[in-house]
Specification:
Structural class: mainly beta
Oligomer: single chain
Shape: globular
Distance between the termini: 48 Å
Number of helices: 9
Radius of gyration: 25 Å
Length: 686
């Protein structure tokens, strides 16, 4: 009854808001569209997380859009949906003529109206009218956010957590750029563009239960020196190279409804770091040198790591949680250091042909012998990788092979094809031995980016047979030659996704998705005598999803989704089932005010049949909570644009679970069946 009342109330409010919205001034919705694109991109590739390096990367593009006339192929591939083939076609097009308006991109083979809408928030064509009369442009942005759980967790009641229950986040960026005129290959002026800049970024975070306001801090200082074709980075950064076998940030895009672009990584060297993952990034200095035919990145890093050490001073585990609320957690803080030197270089001897090399040597302050069974042992490690890429207007061949300290070889090879304007095909094969060690990699695969203990073959196809119909599918077959976290024996499996998007009318969209995944699983069960036993087999999961989206105006969006999951276990014909239904609305009822609200009902047999529900969040954060059991969740997000320079945002969320006396466990346990959270954020741009 409570669910029906909430949905009915929301529906009435939505139609009232839409009616009001028809007669109000329409605010600039460019940022709203950009955030919608981020949501569509990240929904398929994230699990339960609040802060994402992927989100930070795309947010940086939104704040500092790429100049479409100057961006490299690697930079263009950061844009959602841009493949290496489309990036090649953009560069070929601009070599013939300067892109003076973004609509000129519609003349590039592979760029559709829908794709241009997707990437428009992240690109520009030269300097804006406001910048064109200035010798230099200065910009600053500041974001502060506070998050508070409204129910007290056990750790705050019994003193286990030493700090306050509020989570705090602050982020400051600044940029000073000088304008100049760049020339094309024929010596003709392209117009005024940013040719040099100095950029600063600082981020601090305090998690709930931690004692310091800036318990974690990261930052960087970057400078672009055009006369030397060099960019310098001092402070915190990540490095992306080739297909991720040697260097990549700790997260990356993998399998999802974007079945083509996500297959090829094509990293672009050193990038500033302003995320809140407290372990796997670099702290030191990096230099990028870029010329027409040569790209070179040199780097040095020396940073602390959180780890657990035994009585002999041996590292038994790394602490990737970033949480330091208790005495035990504080005991793992900054217990060791990693010192690393690395290089990334690539040559372009012919148009479309690139040959690259990536390498690093690392040393830990203490010997490493991880209790998790990882093959890394000792204090030193090294990896060397070579990569090759050949691109033309309809074809891209790519590969990377890497060798670790113990001469173990791992490799990735693939092909992207565009045989017709309505057909895209991607193929990728990978081979990662069980004892291959590359601790700074993130690869395309099944095991969460880990370049170890996996071989597989992937095929993806995207079709646009009709203007109103898009079809995408992939099939991935994989084998694990050694045990995994879910199986003690060698195992394997497959992953299949079929996705269709149907434009029923200019304002009405229907999406249908089917996903079928099966892989090895070890499950504890009981026999007929009640004795506990382990059963090894193949765990099969199937997900069915249907989404209807109505965009009746630029001020109103209505979306409904239903998703069903079934899980089949190796030891039984019985199935676990789950269902999730949500109704959400996004509206601009008043000028400068954005409202995003959703009601979610869910019912699953257990945690194993959980369903993920990607949510709208405050800018700069993401949320994809796992919902299980029986219950109701709802949230509302409001953002008000006080002025062109100041926004204030708020999110209130609540989860109600039926039939439970507590939520969570241990120090994080909440007594009762309700979990509520309030978040407030202020953004200032100058």
């Amino acid at each position: 009854m409570r669910l029906k009342l909430l949905i009915l109330t929301l529906a009435c409010a939505c139609f009232t808001i839409e009616a009001l919205g028809q007669g109000i001034p329409k605010r600039d919705t460019s940022r709203t569209r950009a955030e919608a694109e981020l949501e569509n991109l990240l929904e398929q590739v994230t699990q339960d997380a609040e802060d994402s390096q992927l989100l930070d990367l795309l947010a940086r593009l939104q704040e500092n859009p790429l100049d479409i006339n100057e961006a490299t192929a690697e930079e263009l591939q950061q844009l959602p949906g841009i493949t290496s083939i489309i990036a090649f076609n953009i560069i070929s097009f601009r070599a013939r003529q300067t892109i003076r308006d973004l609509d000129d991109l519609l003349q590039v083979e592979g760029i559709t109206i829908e794709m241009l809408k997707r990437i428009r928030p992240f690109i520009r064509a030269g300097s804006s009218e406001r910048e064109a009369t200035k010798e230099s442009v200065t910009s600053f942005s500041f974001r502060t956010r506070a998050v508070q759980d409204l129910q007290r967790r056990r750790g705050f009641q019994d003193g286990t957590y030493r700090g306050s229950p509020m989570k705090l986040y602050n982020r400051l960026t600044g940029r000073v750029a000088r304008l100049g005129e760049s020339l094309d290959r024929q010596g003709r002026g392209r117009g005024r563009n940013f040719t040099s800049f100095v950029e600063l970024g600082i981020v601090t975070e305090k998690d709930a239960g931690e004692t310091k306001v800036a318990d974690f801090a990261a930052g960087y200082l970057a400078a672009n020196i055009p006369s030397m074709s060099t960019r310098l980075l001092l402070g915190d950064f990540v490095v992306e190279s080739a297909e991720g076998l040697v260097f990549w940030r700790s997260m990356g895009l993998s399998k999802g409804t974007e079945v083509i672009a996500n297959v090829r990584k094509n990293g672009g060297g050193a990038k500033p770091y302003l995320s809140t993952d407290e372990n796997w990034y670099f702290r030191g200095i990096a230099a990028d040198v870029t010329m027409d035919w040569l790209s070179l990145t040199l780097m040095y890093s020396n940073k602390p790591l959180h780890a657990a050490l035994d009585s002999q001073g041996v590292i038994t585990s790394f602490d990737n949680s970033g949480l330091f609320r208790t005495e035990t957690e504080l005991g793992r803080r900054n217990q060791t250091r990693e010192r690393l030197m690395g290089i990334r270089t690539s040559l372009t001897p012919l148009k479309g042909l690139k040959v690259g090399l990536s390498a690093y040597e690392t040393r830990f302050a203490h010997p490493v012998r991880l209790s998790s069974g990882s093959q890394f042992r000792g204090q030193t490690g090294s990896v060397v990788g070579v990569d090759l890429s050949y691109t033309q207007r309809w074809l891209n061949l790519f590969s990377e092979v890497a060798r670790d300290r113990d001469n173990k070889l791992a490799g990735v090879a693939g092909i992207l094809l565009r045989p017709h304007s309505a057909v895209d095909i991607s193929c990728l094969v990978r081979s990662f031995p069980r004892d291959f060690v590359s601790i700074h990699s993130y690869v395309f695969g099944e095991l969460g980016g880990t370049a170890r203990n996996e071989s597989g073959a992937y095929l993806g196809v995207s079709l646009r047979p009709l203007r109103w119909l898009r079809l995408s599918t992939y099939y991935d077959q994989f084998v694990f030659p050694w045990r995994t976290s879910s199986s003690v024996f060698p195992s394997g499996g497959h992953d299949l996704l079929a996705f269709s998007e149907i434009v029923l009318s200019p304002k009405l969209l229907l999406q249908l998705q089917y996903k079928d995944k099966s892989k090895g699983d070890l499950r504890m069960t009981t026999d007929v005598l009640g004795r506990l036993k382990a059963v090894e087999g193949s765990r099969a999961q199937k997900n069915f999803r249907a989404t209807v989206e109505l965009n009746s105006s630029i001020t109103f969006r209505w979306r409904t989704r239903i998703e069903v999951v079934t899980v089949q276990y190796p030891d039984s014909t019985a199935k676990e089932k789950g269902i999730l239904v949500f109704q959400d609305v996004r509206a601009i009822p008043l000028n400068r005010l954005l409202i995003d609200a959703r009601v979610i009902a869910f019912h699953t047999d257990s945690y194993d049949s959980r369903l993920y529900e990607f949510e709208s969040e405050l800018s700069g954060t993401l949320s994809n909570p796992a919902l299980f059991g029986k219950g109701l969740r709802w949230y509302i997000v409001a953002r008000y644009e006080i002025s062109s320079a100041v926004d204030i945002s708020l999110k209130y969320s609540q989860t109600l679970r039926e039939g439970v006396k507590s939520i969570g466990s241990g120090a994080s346990e909440i007594l009762g069946d309700r979990d509520s959270r309030l978040s407030v954020q202020v953004d200032v741009r100058i």
